């Protein structure tokens, strides 16, 4: 074996080790590169102005977010804290709230989950949705992982309304929970769009992110979810 081939093998081995390390540490302590990438494309909700509208309605009795039957999704369980940063996120390890609605559900059913919260007026969501759909169409989503979308912060006075027409136009194939009262967003601590919540098979939060997420990073995060 020549010295150049031995060097190539060493370089390949080091690359594999770096990739393994990246997958191992991505969740729940997310690597700096992912944080930077996610922070680039996000609209932070400020409660007013162009940055977005509030997505945290009042909570139900005992701190559990809920809505009246027939008014929208029904959310059960303790809400997660408002998301700030993945580093030291207090939601990691907490049990997710469950959601039932006419169009989809979020249940603790032994399957890992990727929850993607989008707003129809958010340009970063409009960028991300076709990329994610193309990734799904190409077989990127593992068969043992669910990807569920929550369409929230719905506003008929803002661009790209109605959201179901937008998602249909993008060929979106994942289940969509329509969140007209923002109850689901509230329960999951949404603070910016796009908003990602990664869930282990046992129903605990593995990590949360905001912003446009490259598909390579999404794959690495999914690979790190506990089955």
Task: Explain how this protein is built.
The protein has six helices and ten strands, in the order ααβββββαβαβαβββα. The protein has 227 residues and is of the alpha+beta class. The chain has a single domain, classed as Glutaredoxin (3-Layer(aba) Sandwich), CATH 3.40.30.10. The strands form three sheets. It has a five-stranded mixed sheet. Strands 2-3-4 form a three-stranded antiparallel sheet. A two-stranded antiparallel ribbon has the order 1-8. The longest helix is centred in the N-terminal third of the chain and has 24 residues. It is globular and about 40 Å long.
The description of the largest β-sheet is: 5 strands, mixed
Strand order of the largest sheet: 7-6-5-9-10
Question: What is the structural class?
Answer: alpha+beta
Which consecutive residue ranges, at least 5 long each, have pLDDT under 50? 15-39, 46-70
Label the overall shape.
globular
Oligomer: single chain
CATH class: Alpha Beta
Number of domains: 1
Provide the gyration radius in Å.
Answer: 19 Å
What's the name of the CATH homologous superfamily?
A: Glutaredoxin
Compact summary:
The chain is an alpha+beta fold and 227 residues long. It has helices at 3-26, 32-40, 123-137, 163-169, 183-187, 215-223; strands at residues 43-44, 74-76, 98-101, 104-106, 113-118, 146-151, 176-178, 192-193, 195-199, 205-210.
